[in-house]
Design brief:
The complex is a heterodimer of chains A (about 240) and B (about 300). Chain A has one domain. In chain A, helix 7 packs across helix 14. The longest helix of chain A is centred in the middle third of the chain and has 28 residues. Chain A is mostly helical and about 240 residues long. By secondary structure, chain B is an alpha/beta fold. Chain B has two domains: about 220 residues, 3-Layer(aba) Sandwich (Rossmann fold), CATH 3.40.50.300; about 70 residues, Alpha-Beta Plaits (2-Layer Sandwich), CATH 3.30.70. In chain B, the strands form three sheets. In chain B, strands 6-7-8-3-9-10 form a six-stranded mixed β-sheet, sandwiched between helices. In chain B, strands 2-1-4-5 form a four-stranded antiparallel β-sheet. In chain B, strands 12-13-11-14 form a four-stranded antiparallel β-sheet. In chain B, a hairpin with a 2-residue loop joins strand 4 and strand 5. In chain B, helix 3 crosses helix 4 and helix 4 crosses helix 5. The radius of gyration of chain B is 24 Å and the shape is elongated. Classes of the chains: A mainly alpha (about 240), B alpha/beta (about 300). The interface between A and B is medium-sized, with 23 and 30 residues. The structure holds adenosine-5'-diphosphate and magnesium ion (MG).
Chain lengths: ~240, ~300
């Protein structure tokens, strides 16, 4: 088997070897239910779609992704197993990808377990399931972007708490960057190019259409390059620590 | 062959490893000695590719660890300091993971695992989580993962640290039991370990080699080498007999250890055999003696001398 997948398998089973994983999934399901049904006025809207559900995903990920990604590298550093892992015949790329994939699959599992909400909306009306499926995919892609940030932050420190906070802050920056409030603060004294760039780097800008079920090529490229960039940054951080 | 050439590692201002060069050939079991902080672990981390050298190079059977990392790492089995393992896994899962990463699957994987489980006597804890194991078992799991691919090069960072005497013995037996064409580097600050298992001793202090020789030669470096220590009965005082022993030909110096009621006689250069003359003096003067010991050399004293911390 490919070393990347062997690492993914090990990581994934280590997620499920502690109760933390189950608690995490439970919190994820409860929060997405609360957001959708109470804050999202799911019933009052009287529309058979999951827009309110997906609209809250960036906010949900802001707390839950750091919790999934914080242990990726910090724990290895703390326990010393990083020395074992990186002296086995695997490349940095394989190790980083293997771990990232495990975290991403784990998030995918949590996302999949929200299917009762999908069942509910199908019971109540006739939603466009194609739209819902592509929203799910878009949300999962966005989670990948968040997780890649978390992977990099986790490689920076041996403390999981610090990794959690760093990841939360960076993800918040990338989420808020597209909000008018933030953009207006820059308007007037920054060139339009900077403001446009800022907006185009925001998770929100790209997710707003995704939550309506439209994944444009642009958004796809954005999420994939976001993940690619931060995973490459993870490798660079590991290399820097090695050469320190 | 491992070839280490002008290896340097600097952490900011601190020079942890300072221009280290040596080569190790198959069949050698090299004891890597030095006080805490001497740079043993840092050197091993560079040999195994975990840290990159600030300067210099390491090649393992011709593969440069910085440019040909994976090929070098395939040939190395490594036990990092403290034997870190994935604690949440069972021994079986952990060894399975290592075997898979090393490229074994199916029957071959099972056979490899079984072999190291037998070598390291891990059968009773095979399905136990590593976090629940005693220190001795954890260390053995660490050793088991290091030898699962039967590597040509084995790097062990303090393999017996914190083990009880039985466990130490077991680990040494394992190392002695390795086939004779391997390269083994063991770091330790336990000196007897070197005479017990090693064919060569390299002592470093502050990142530099201060001695590189066979363990026996290390003993010969001791000022106690060839000396004779006489322990007297409690009823007599050691200091009363200094004159008697000092009169023996070729005795250069007599030292008294009041606490142990001992006299140590040092031979003059080039004259090693004092024992016979000493026993004659004891017999002639009917001195009450508990023990007479021919010293081979005191390693701890050599260690302190060469590492510059003469007590
Ligand atoms: N990652 C690091 N950053 C800074 N200093 C370090 C680091 N690792 C080791 N050192 C320092 O390098 C020196 C050598 O350490 P080490 O190789 O662990 O010694 P030994 O294994 O011989 O006890 C010590 O002074 C130690 O504090
Ligand atoms: Mg050490």
């Amino acid at each position: 088997m490919n070393p990347t997948l062997i690492i993914t398998k090990r990581e994934l089973s280590s997620y499920f070897s502690t109760p933390v994983a189950y608690v995490f999934i439970l919190i994820f399901l409860v929060l997405s239910g609360v957001f959708t049904f109470y804050l999202g006025n799911f019933f009052e809207r009287e529309q058979a779609d999951l827009t309110p559900f997906f609209n809250f995903h960036p906010w949900l990920y802001l707390f839950l992704v750091p919790a999934v990604s914080m242990r990726l590298w910090s724990e290895e550093r703390k326990s010393g197993t990083i020395e074992l892992l990186l002296t086995l015949p695997v490349t940095r790329f394989q190790a980083v990808m293997g771990k990232f994939l495990a975290a991403w699959l784990f998030t995918g599992i949590a996302l999949f377990l929200t299917f009762p909400i999908w069942l509910t909306v199908n019971y109540l009306g006739q939603p466009d399931n194609g739209v819902i499926l592509s929203s799910y995919l878009g949300s999962w892609l966005m989670a990948g972007g968040f997780l890649a940030i978390g992977s990099c932050m986790s490689a920076l420190t041996r403390s999981q708490v610090i990794a959690f906070i760093l990841c939360g802050v960076v993800c918040l920056v990338f989420t808020l960057a597209g909000f008018p409030l933030v953009l207006n603060a820059f308007r007037g004294w920054m060139p339009q190019l900077v403001i446009d760039t800022l907006a185009s780097l925001s998770f929100m800008t790209h997710f707003s259409s995704v939550s309506r079920g439209v994944i444009s090529l642009q958004d796809l490229v954005y999420f994939i390059s976001m993940a690619g960039f931060w995973l490459a940054a993870t490798i660079i951080v590991l290399d820097m620590k090695q050469a320190k | 062959m491992i070839e280490i050439s002008h290896l340097v590692k600097r952490f900011d201002q601190l020079v942890a490893v300072n221009d280290l060069s040596f080569r190790v050939v198959p069949g050698e079991i090299l004891g890597f000695l030095g006080p805490n902080g001497a740079g043993k672990s840092t050197t091993m981390k560079m040999i195994t590719g975990f840290l990159s050298p600030t300067e210099g190079s390491v090649t393992v059977n011709g593969c440069d660890i910085t440019t040909d990392t994976l090929a070098a790492q395939q040939q190395i089995g490594y036990l990092p300091e403290g034997a870190p393992c994935y604690d949440e896994m069972t021994v079986r899962q952990f060894l399975g993971f290592i075997a898979e990463i090393r490229g074994y699957g199916g029957d071959e994987k099972q056979r490899r695992i079984q072999r190291v489980v037998d070598t390291m006597s891990l059968q009773p804890v095979l399905d136990q989580r590593i976090e629940t194991l005693s220190k001795g078992f954890t260390r053995r799991v660490g050793l088991a993962q290091a030898i699962i691919h039967d590597p040509a090069v084995l790097i062990l960072d303090e393999p017996t640290d914190g083990l009880d005497p039985n466990q130490k013995h077991q680990v040494r037996e394992m190392i002695r039991g390795l086939s004779k064409d391997k390269i083994v580097i063991i770091s330790t600050h336990i000196l007897e370990e070197v005479t017990a298992v090693c064919t060569r001793a390299v002592i470093i202090a502050q990142g530099k080699i201060v001695a590189d020789c066979r363990p026996e030669e290390l003993e010969e470096k001791s000022r106690f080498h060839g000396a004779v220590t006489v322990t007297l009965e409690e009823s007599v005082r050691a200091s009363d007999y200094v004159g008697a022993f000092a009169g023996i030909p070729h005795v250069r110096l007599v030292e008294v250890n009041e606490d142990a009621n001992q006299l140590t006689l040092f031979p003059a250069a080039g004259h090693a055999a004092l024992l016979l003359a000493v026993t004659e003096v004891i017999r002639d003067r009917q001195i009450g003696v508990l023990a007479i010991q021919q010293e081979k050399g005191r390693l701890d004293e050599v260690f302190r001398t060469v590492t510059g911390e003469v007590a």
